[in-house]
Amino acid sequence: MTELLELEREMSVGATVWLTGLPSAGKTTIARALADRLRAEGRPVEVLDGDEIREFLSAGLGFSREDRHVNVQRIGFVSQLLAAHGVTVLVPVIAPYADSREAVRKRHQDLGTGYVEVHVATPVDVCSARDVKGLYARQAAGEISGLTGVDDPYEVPAEPDLRIAAHEQSVTESAAALYALLAERGLR
Known about the structure:
Layout: H1 2-11, E1 15-20, H2 27-40, E2 45-47, H3 50-56, H4 65-84, E3 88-92, H5 98-110, E4 114-120, H6 124-130, H7 135-140, E5 162-164, H8 171-184
Parallel strand pairs: 1-3, 1-4, 2-3, 4-5
């Protein structure tokens, strides 16, 4: 019976893993790789992808500073709620402003929910070369403006729990570094 209770306690540990970085930095790719590994271990995992959230939870919001803040707070609310119920929530979202990210961290801390911030620190020139969604090309052509890290600010996290140089290591290595951090913090 004691072993069963211990197993239930271990399985109920949830946390939010907030992956921030520029567009095309590799946030979602790393999150999905880590999610696969955690699911293979039987952990409940959700990936709250920034693009999907914008489409379904934050439809109608633009890209002003205030709209970006509201979007981040909505994602933070949902991630904290899921994490409080034992889910490891991976959140690959640009979240360009430090104060918005700090508000999410504070909410988790105030409610006693695990939280780690990961900066996927891929330089803008590498992101631009990857240009997964064609955003950098569209910005260069003058079709869009307000691209984070190019003509809109991105506030680099001063002290993230982990900084991943995704342009210098593989997706597997990046996910493994994040997995190790979660183990170290007792969050997986």
